[in-house]
Write a structure and sequence with these properties.
The protein contains 15 helices and 30 strands. It is an alpha+beta fold. It folds into 3 domains: 220 residues, BirA Bifunctional Protein, domain 2 (2-Layer Sandwich), CATH 3.30.930.10; 130 residues, YbaK/aminoacyl-tRNA synthetase-associated domain (YbaK protein), CATH 3.90.960.10; 103 residues, Anticodon-binding domain (Rossmann fold, 3-Layer(aba) Sandwich). Helix 1 packs across helix 11, helix 2 runs antiparallel to helix 5 and helix 2 crosses helix 11.
Length: 574
């Protein structure tokens, strides 16, 4: 491709609303342009990258035996009403509208309902199973606060796959196959990533994993073992129960703690560490009006874990102050588990404590020397806190450390969540109708483009891995309009590389200074650069630089093409 005939739309200034590297560089590099909040146009340079990412995903999905389909982005409300998600999907992320006949539709944020409609119409016999359908298609989620460019956009491209099975064992086989397929996809893109245990959220299912690309800009916090492959989203990582305290019980006492409404204030007033205190949080119960959640003072409540505990309303909702005062006769800063009169759920770490401090259940007073068994008993002991760095790893190997991650993929064992609700059945070997088991496997295609940049960039611009780079080589002739030798050499190198299947951008733009061409090449992140000038040609050399290298080097003219072909072939086959 010759730059004089190609749209190179680089910008010198960083957009004011671009907060992270990928958003800044995609805009500055002329890969995307904002159309509306969370909605972007893809320019030619960006589309080349997007299509390469799609190509890798498509190759690996096809290799796994999955079959590609294409489903509409517009979906009728009737399907969502069948599944029960029309009224409750993710607090308004579902963009709904009516057509001219006043019928309800939505823009698809995901396609479980549509694929189940296909399956119940097309799959009749167990002999057709298992089957796995996938698409690479536009999605729309009406995000309340789109941000970070492609990372949390409203319109985006996604690969979503859905498998159907006669037995749970067959579902597990395909789930594991998709796990391995995702690993290969991300490895081919040379990404540093972790498969992690995760929560299923609004999609559903009991078994699920996220694929997180590690990056400081990631929205998700990942807990991983320092000595094993264990990794989990913090909201799902199990906090291992500590050993029970062996302290000798001391006498319980009530202490006046004026204006001490927080753990920090109580700890400072009593000159005790926060680890010797417990905090009692009051939430709405499932059958009881109020439920108490008790944690060690320095620990944080994990709402995802807590709302899965029997007796706690889901979604987890903190009780109103007025309701608390009416029932417990005190304010939130003075509540404790002793003689509280409502169900008490205690975190494992808090349940292992002895001689702790807690609220006395009347304002401005706390109890010291409180012990389980003697002074009060929990109704339930459960893991309801966030895991902390330094905690033992749940697999018994090493301790927990944290990293930030960008979720780029999510796989689910859905079971019969959708197929049962929508009556998707096949005839088994006995001729009896059986509800199919389902799996769901999503991968954010446009988000992957951003995630790659978050791992591969420097102060000058993007550092694309060769496998997804918009071009593999850029050839820059210096003052070609003044030198026939420079122009001819540049075009010969360009043609030889192109004939060898190498993707080359020949920067033949007139009126653009060499410094600007170099800056554009670095910003765009093309892996290999060849500069041709009269001075080098007089010595029989051209200047070569790898975008991720440490500097320039002179290469003999006759050696540059075979050297580039060999290097690129090795990079593509790694």
């Amino acid at each position: 491709m010759k730059a004089s005939r190609y749209t190179i739309a680089t910008l010198k200034e960083t957009p004011s609303d671009a907060e992270i590297a990928s958003h800044q560089l995609l805009i500055r590099g002329g890969f995307i342009r904002k159309l509306a909040s969370g909605i972007y146009n893809w320019l030619p340079m960006g589309l080349r990258v997007l299509q390469k990412v799609e190509g890798i995903i498509r190759e690996e999905m096809n290799a796994s035996g999955a079959q590609e389909v294409m489903m509409p982005i517009v979906q009728p409300a009737e399907l969502w009403q069948e599944s029960g998600r029309w009224a409750k999907y993710d607090d308004g992320l579902l963009l709904k509208f009516k057509d001219r006949h006043d019928r309800d539709f939505c823009f698809g944020p995901t396609h479980e309902e549509v694929i189940t409609e296909i399956a119940r119409n097309e799959l009749k016999s167990h002999k057709q199973l298992p089957v796995n359908y996938y698409q690479i298609q536009t999605k729309f989620r009406d995000e309340t606060r789109p941000r970070f460019g492609l990372m949390r956009a409203r319109e985006f491209t996604m690969k979503d796959a859905y498998s159907f099975h006669l037995t749970p064992e067959s579902l597990v086989e395909t789930y594991n196959l998709m796990h391995d397929t995702y690993v290969r996809i991300l490895q081919r893109m040379t990404l540093d990533f972790r498969p992690v245990q995760a929560d299923s959220g609004s999609i559903g299912g009991d078994v699920t994993k996220e694929f997180q690309v590690l990056a400081d800009s990631g929205e998700d916090k990942i807990a991983f073992s320092t000595e094993s492959d264990y990794a989990a989203n913090v909201e799902m990582a199990e906090a291992v129960a500590p050993a029970m305290s062996t302290e000798t019980a001391i006498e319980r006492a009530e202490v006046h703690t004026p204006n001490c409404k927080t753990i920090e204030a109580v700890s400072e007033f009593l000159k005790l560490p926060e680890t010797q205190t417990v905090k009692t949080l009051i939430v709405v119960g499932e059958s009881e009006p109020l439920v108490a959640l008790v944690l060690r003072g320095d620990h944080q409540l994990n709402t995802v874990k807590a709302e899965k505990i029997a007796g706690v309303a889901s979604p987890l909702t903190f009780a109103d102050e007025a309701d608390i005062k009416a029932k417990l006769k005190c304010s939130t800063g003075s509540i404790g588990p002793v003689e509280i009169g409502i169900p008490v759920i205690v975190d494992r770490s808090a349940a292992a404590m002895a001689n702790f401090v807690c609220g006395a259940n009347h304002d401005d007073y706390h109890l010291t020397g409180v012990n389980w068994g003697r002074d009060t008993n929990p109704d339930t002991i459960a893991d309801i806190r966030d895991i902390c760095e330094g905690d033992p790893s749940p697999d018994g190997k090493g301790v927990i450390a944290f990293k930030r991650g960008i979720e780029v993929g999510h796989i689910f064992q859905l079971g019969d969540t959708y197929s049962k609700a929508m009556n998707a059945t096949v005839l088994d070997e006995n001729g009896k109708a059986q509800v199919m088991y389902m799996g769901c496997y999503g991968m954010g295609v446009t988000r992957l483009v951003a995630a790659i940049i978050e791992q591969y960039h420097d102060e000058k611009g993007m550092l694309w891995p060769t496998v997804v780079a918009p071009f593999q080589v850029i050839v820059i002739p210096i003052n070609a309009h003044k030198s026939e030798a420079v122009l001819t050499t540049a075009e010969n190198i360009y043609q030889e590389l192109t004939d060898a299947g190498i993707e080359v951008l020949l920067d033949d733009r007139e009126g653009v200074r060499p410094g600007a061409k170099f800056a554009d090449a670095e910003l765009i992140g093309i892996p290999h650069r060849v500069v041709i000038g009269d001075r080098g040609l007089d010595n029989g050399v051209v200047e070569y630089a790898a975008r991720n290298g440490n500097g320039n080097e002179d290469v003999v003219l006759d050696e540059i093409v075979p050297r580039l072909i060999k290097a690129i072939q090795q990079e593509l086959n790694t």
